[in-house]
Amino acid sequence: MRTPEIRSLPSIDGSSQIIGPSKTDICTFAYPRTNAAHIMIAKFDDHIPLYRLSEMYDRLGIDISRSVMADWVGRVSILLAPLVLAIRAHVAAVDRIHTDDTPVDVLDPGRGKTKTGRVWVYVFDGSGYQDPTPGAIAYYYSPDRKGAHPGPCCTDQMVISI
Fold first, then answer.
1. Residue 94, pLDDT score
2. pTM of the model
């Protein structure tokens, strides 16, 4: 199966528009798309690892290997990339954000241990000061807490609340 492409097309006003994969790319899953949606929600919202999901499906008589589910997670992630980029651009365009970093354990291949990475969250919610701009949350990962990482969407004109 080929990997769906994400491309950028110029629009009338000269800016570029991100175009996601076609609907035919979405339909290349071996099982119905609802299973891929369930796996994504179970993995990222319910925090169930793929090996455990595979065992749960096996108990129901459904044979979906962990490698197949990992492939689906990758494909759905590609399909969601334009949405992620749009949300990050929206958050970067506002004049004030709230931010925080959360330490997360990350596998450190070769050492047999984990190391501490960071998930940075940038939140815009203008409801407290009647801003009509829709709220949004953008997440970024960094392998450490160096000063170069927390600023992918920050500018000198932005008010940051930590």
1. 86
2. 0.65
pLDDT beneath 70: ranges in the chain? 1-34, 147-162
Residue 6 CA neighbour count, 13 Å, CB half: 16
Pair 108, 83: CB distance under 8 Å: no
Q: Are 84 and 6 in contact (CB under 8 A)?
A: no
The per-residue pLDDT for range 31-41, each reduced to its tens digit, is 556 688 899 99
Cα torsion through 87, 91, 93, 97, rounded to 10 = 180
Q: Which helix (H) or strand (E) holds 63?
A: none
CA distance 137 to 126: 12
The pLDDT assigned to 73 comes to 92
Closest of 127, 129, 120, 118 to residue 153, by C-alpha:
120
DSSP β-bridge partners for residue 160: 97
CA distances from 94 to 52, 97, 110, 136, 149 (A): 40, 7, 41, 10, 19
Three-state secondary structure string covering 92-141: HHCCEEEEEEEEEEEEECCCCEEEEEEEEEEEECHHHHCCCCCCEEEEEE
